[in-house]
Amino acid sequence: xxxxMKLSICATLVLSVGMLSGCGGEVLPLDISSxxxxxxxxxxxxxxxxxxxxRFPLDLATQLTLVEKEKEWIHDQSDxxxxxxxxxxxxxxxxxxIFLDPALAAKVGKAANxxxxxxxxxxxxxxxxxxxxxxxxxxxxxxxxxxxxxFVLVYQWATLNIHVKAVDTGSGSIIWDNGGFxxxxxxxxxxxxxDPARHTSRxxxxxxxxDIRKHMLSQIGHQLAPEKINERPVPEILMKPERKLVRSGxxxxxx
Length: 255
Description:
Blueprint: E1 20-22, E2 25-27, E3 37-40, E4 44-45, H1 55-67, E5 72-75, H2 83-90, H3 95-100, H4 102-111, E6 116-138, E7 150-168, E8 174-177, E9 181-192, H5 205-224, E10 236-239, E11 245-247
Parallel strand pairs: 3-5, 3-6, 4-6, 9-10
Antiparallel strand pairs: 1-2, 6-7, 6-11, 7-8, 7-9
Helix pairs in contact: 1-5
């Protein structure tokens, strides 16, 4: 398993009604109604996300197959059942080649007898955490402020950027481009200030990676089949305190 980068996250990630938005801006969904045979190629990746080159397109194709059963989805399923990978090898091309050059993408898609081919690039997987030492107080169980009601927060988060395009195999033109979408999953855990677990208890990196991948599968799936696959909120808060926590002076915490 490749090591994921630990860097700062995007400053703002917003999901507006009817439009999808991440760090890359807004994008309208792809209309696939006039296409019957749709290929999904292995996505190009950077070193930090190399493990997702085939895994993400496979999971995306599986998801789309379930909701768009009338369409024929062409994608690599294994080392032996790989209609797109075999065409890439036969033409001495890489996933990056067809992501950057729509004419090459169209050539591979046409050889696989597809009407359009979906190509993508995965980059900037980031895991990080922050310990917030600014105290909060639990007002749900008892009134007043004491050591037993004093808490601190630990934040963990993951972000991932996926840029996806669709190329018409007949014309060789890009018919859809999501511009690059950044997903964001977040976890907020509370600890009593006297609890030493806050310094050692963590959500494991493998779980963070699995959650951001599921998050992005829904986001990209929604862009391709908006009426059948629900989008996720950005950020998607997967864990937060259930107790009523307030800052000193009674200011409530809004997640």
